[in-house]
Amino acid sequence: MFVIGELINGMYSYIGKAITQKDKSVIQKYAIDQIKAGADALDVNCGPLSKQPVSDIQWLIEAIQEVTDKTICIDSSNPEVIASGLKVARNKTIINSTTADKAKMDKLIPLAKQYHAKLIGLTISASGIPQNKDQRMELAVQIVSACSEAEFPLEDLFLDPIVMPINVAQAQQREILESIREFKIISDPSPKTIIGLSNVSQGTFVRPLINRTFLVMAAAFGLDAAILDPLDTELLDAGITADLILNKQIFCDKYLDAYRKK
Amino acid sequence: MALQLMMDKWSGSISVVTIGSTKDNGGTRIKSIDIGGEETLPCLFQEANFKYRPRIAFEILDIPAVEWPDELRKAYGKALDNPLKWADKCANEFKAECLCVRLQGAHPDSGNRPVKDEVDFIKELLKTTGLPLIILGCSDDAKDNLLLPACSEATKGERCLIGSALQDNYKTLTACVLADGHNIIAESPIDINIAKQLNILISDMGLPLERIVINPTIGSLGYGLEYAYSIMERARLAALAGDKTVASPFICFVGAESWKAKEAKVSLANQGIIWEALTATALIQAGADLLVMRHPKAIEKTNKYIDNLFRR
């Protein structure tokens, strides 16, 4: 499982404050803590309160690159912010994200190609959030076709089925899980699959347990990557163990340490 | 239609281990050898570059090899009764590029030579030959825990490869190898899970994974070779996919295993040599990086095989 740490996001007050005060040490601490905990990449989002996201994203990325060469996942719904982040990124990058809307894909797919970045495609469009597996598949196929036409390598595309909170969309959870499996058969080579995990437990009282259970189930459906809180040790342990059971890692008694050493 | 090869691209690679330290690097060896570094599965020459080819070490003992089969004994003649002359013969007559000395005489059942005598022998050996050295204990845990630290200290700075660390007995050896700048052999009983666990245990003590060589334990031709093959393949697939905890080069004790086979010991001329050479070539295809062998003819044949295989 490719783990993208979600904690460097301006929506969290400690990061928002660090961005306002330009306090690199906070950002760098969260970067290092997440990597030590087992993250393969770091999501970076200026948050809704940032007044100058185009320059803030550059400051964030530069601060992170001073302490790690891990992949940076540039997270914004605004393509200009993403383009600005890509300009200063020396580490490998992932664009987070495009939707299935043509206007957005027309901007972001060429950017991903230009900067050799990977690309997250959300199965969502201007007409709304999909309500079932078929709608997700339809949007996924649109994204795959657009990438294919633009000759963007499909193995660098991560499709996100859009995880919905369980307390508002209980009936959709199975559809979401099945979408993960079906996304993989859209093309050969297969696109990869990704979820923003924490959404599933939004607004509930037992968030860690719901996150953990969903992650393990998604792994069983073939999930390749997840954006999550790597400092939740039990969550990551469960994900690592799921990989082990799926024979993606060689077992040994210290397999949890082995994963974090990689 | 022209044949089209399916190419894989891997994210991981095998670590490179250097054995032997020359004058420039603070040692006294006349040369050093590098093993490992593979970026794909064995022999897939189209898929990646193979920077380092498999290497062969001549196995010698610290005592006369009285129990070796006649065919082996004949190859070395009288030198076999004097380990230093034996080492010299390997180096000068057979052009060995690395020596592996097994301190069998220290074993309680094989003479129980005192640690001091073994250390003196190792010091003499360093003077006799400038080749990179692999040093093996006597396979008695208690004795090895006295013997190997002393040998490690006596060869400090020579960047030897010393073995073997086992899952139940790795701490003493790891500590001295770390202190004296050597590499370590991590031995597991044809078991990938233990191989991985042991590498983690050793690296937890502070020895970098890049100084570990895995002894996966092998069987010779007809005696479980295929089990060793499957373990080595499994480790390589994981390592190439990015698991650094199993991304170590392999050392295979081809000579010791092959000459145990009854087919090798029969008095049919050349059969032992063929047994040893065939075991070696099969293991090269499984990904062996360092082969410890016994018969000079088998070594010559295997070297020829390596030359042909790696002629690109």
How much of the polypeptide of chain B forms β-strand, as a percent range? 5-15%
In CATH, what is the class of chain B? Alpha Beta
Helix content of chain A: 40-55%
**Distance separating the two termini of chain A:** 12 Å
Largest interface: A-B, 11 and 17 residues
Enumerate the spans of chain A where pLDDT stays under 50 for 5 or more consecutive residues. Answer: none
Q: Identify the quaternary structure here.
A: heterodimer
Round the Cα radius of gyration of chain A to an integer and report it: 18 Å
Write a concise synopsis of the structure shown:
By secondary structure, chain A is an alpha/beta fold. Chain A has helices spanning 13-21, 24-37, 53-65, 79-88, 102-114, 133-149, 173-183, 207-220, 233-245, 255-261, and strands at 2-9, 41-45, 71-75, 93-98, 118-122, 157-160, 192-196, 225-228.
Can you walk through the features of this model?
The complex is a heterodimer of chains A (262) and B (312). Chain A is α/β, with parallel strands linked by helices and 262 residues long. Chain A has a single domain (2-233), classed as TIM Barrel, CATH 3.20.20. Chain A is built from ten helices and eight strands. Chain A has an eight-stranded parallel β-barrel, surrounded by five helices. The longest helix of chain A has 17 residues, at 133-149. Chain A is globular. Chain A starts with a strand and ends with a helix. Chain B is an alpha/beta fold and 312 residues long. Chain B has a single domain (29-309), classed as Alpha-Beta Barrel (TIM Barrel), CATH 3.20.20.20. Chain B is 39% helix and 14% strand. Chain B contains eleven helices and ten strands. Chain B has helices spanning 70-76, 83-92, 115-128, 141-154, 171-180, 192-204, 225-240, 254-258, 262-265, 271-286, 296-309, and strands spanning 16-19, 33-36, 55-61, 99-102, 133-136, 161-165, 183-187, 212-215, 251-252, 290-293. In chain B, helix 3 crosses helix 4 (141-154), helix 7 (225-240) runs parallel beside helix 10 (271-286) and helix 10 runs parallel beside helix 11 (296-309). At the A-B interface, helix 10 of A face helix 6 and helix 7 of B.
